Amino acid sequence: MSLKLGVPSKGRLMDKTFDWFTRRGVDMRSSGDGREYVATSGIEGLELVLLSAGEIPRELGAGRIHIGVTGTDVVRDRLPSWDTQVAEIAPLGFGHAELLIAVPRFWVDVDTLHDLDAVAAAFRRTHGHRLRIATKYHRLVREFLRAQGVADYRLVDSQGATEGTVRNLTAEAIADITSTGETLRANHLKPLSDGVILKSQATLFKSRKASWDTDTRETLAVLLERVGLSG
Amino acid sequence: MTDPVAISQEAQRFVRAFEGAGAELIDTDVLQPAEVLLDLYGEDMRARAFVSSDPLRGEVMLRPDFTVPVVQMHLAGGASQARYTYQGKVFRQQADGSDRPAEYQQVGFELFNGDNPVDADAEVFALFDRLLTPMGLRAATGDIGILRAAVMGLETSENRRAALLRHLWRPRRFRALLERFSNPLPARAPVSMIDAPEIGLRSRAEVEARLAAQAEDACVAAISAGQAELVDIILGLKEEAPIVLSHLNDLVVDMPAIAPAVASFSARLDALSARGIDVETLAFEASYGRTALEYYDGFVFGFYAPDRPDLPPVATGGRYDALTRALGGSEAPRAVGGVIRPGLIVELGLAP
């Protein structure tokens, strides 16, 4: 049986993943003209599976791939009790990002979660509905806010262009992944000083649910040896 | 797997007992509009309930409890006093790794607009007690009204009292707020309006209003150590009801604002006694029900299997006037009720 490695199928995350492995002696390239979702590696018995980065946690959890590269943020958001389903092999040192809560920059009265909570109460009285926070990381944001005791908010789903939701009047605040903060500033938003929910980076994960036989274990050992992660 | 037929039979037995106590049997839809429940309970409800959607009806939830649809039905009917019973499945997502079922039977009894609230509390509790105590289950009781009164009695600003009351049900934030209000506020760097553009629904006027409120709050004197300690003492009360009552009577001297709440606690014990409850041994815990749904705002109770702390309570109940007000306005009827989980009774081997 071959060892299935899930890698991101497009964008910077794919490029950086391919770079990371190639620089460590595991030649990875996509076949054909780059539109065909097939890729090869230089290791016998290692099969690359190109997947959307957001689907890699699910595939690991289902055991359809043995190992995979994706962000710690999506693993924690998508997989309930994530550490019973997957194990971290190693962080890869790229794809750094923070999941954080941000509010309009002109809210000069708001700096902390305490402020956000107080504003949420007043907002609900004034506007007759809960203060809306746009995000695609529902589980992580809800658990964070519950643990912090923030009330009177409601999550609204935003699968993209989340920083624009405040201007478009579909949310009052956002919780999103940001790597540099430039997009926040460009959209007149600022992070809360204590609103970092999670620091994420691209990480190599191992599935606890996949079937592991002698072949796949050996191939994994060869791969980890080659990229300098063994022992 | 607990036998579903046995559970249904047990549920029917409770329905008949509740009908015998004057309740009318009613039923509600399994699919409930999500909007109302989310607005009442917030995001926590979304984590607990199963949410689905319908192209026409929008977001819907599999009934996470009966209380809200029963209150809506009662309000729509326009009746004044009423007693209802119902039986059916509720659906709750369980915590990660929990093996508790995600759907289970509930049988409930709800009493609207009893002649007097203290006696209505006693009627409901005595009914549950008569059915459950003979099975070896043990009762726990509390009274959110006493906690509310203690917060209302704090000598501080109206805004600070409101902030504390709002978080009565979130012990961690409540503690943090009480701490914050019991110390001088750290000096805050003066904020000037920056020229960032005004975006979103929350207006510049709202930002300015909060800045003004913060400036005002900075001048409020800290809650005294003695008063904060009184709140702590009340939160920590946990003994037989008459002993708690005598502690509370002592505390009234230092905090006269709790006197009416203590008087109704005392009157409730009399009413319970009149209905045959042995109040001398009745367990009372001032913090009981604090982490439950936040619409219980007075008397609260639960029944447990004493040797099975791993199981959820077999029955829970309480007064939820705040919920009827949220749904029906300030003139809404007052209400008290409770639910039994017949599945747990069968699982415990207590069904006759």
What are the salient characteristics of this protein?
heterodimer, A: 231 residues, alpha/beta, D-Maltodextrin-Binding Protein, domain 2, five-stranded mixed beta sheet, B: 352 residues, alpha+beta, BirA Bifunctional Protein, domain 2, seven-stranded mixed beta sheet, three-stranded antiparallel beta sheet, 45% helix, 18% strand, globular
Overview of the molecule:
- The complex is a heterodimer of chains A (231) and B (352).
- Chain A is of the alpha/beta class.
- Chain A contains 8 helices and 12 strands.
- In chain A, the strands form 3 sheets. Chain A has a 5-stranded mixed sheet with strand order 4-1-5-12-6.
- In chain A, a hairpin with an 8-residue loop joins strand 2 (28-30) and strand 3.
- Chain B has 352 residues and is of the alpha+beta class.
- Among the domains of chain B are: 1-137 and 308-316 and 335-352, BirA Bifunctional Protein, domain 2 (2-Layer Sandwich), CATH 3.30.930; 152-189 and 204-229, no CATH class.
- In chain B, 45% of the residues lie in helices and 18% in strands.
- Chain B has a 7-stranded mixed sheet with strand order 1-5-6-12-11-10-7, with helices on both faces.
- In chain B, strand 3 and strand 4 form a beta hairpin.
- Chain B is globular, with a radius of gyration of 22 Å.
- The model of chain B has no long low-confidence stretch (mean pLDDT 91).
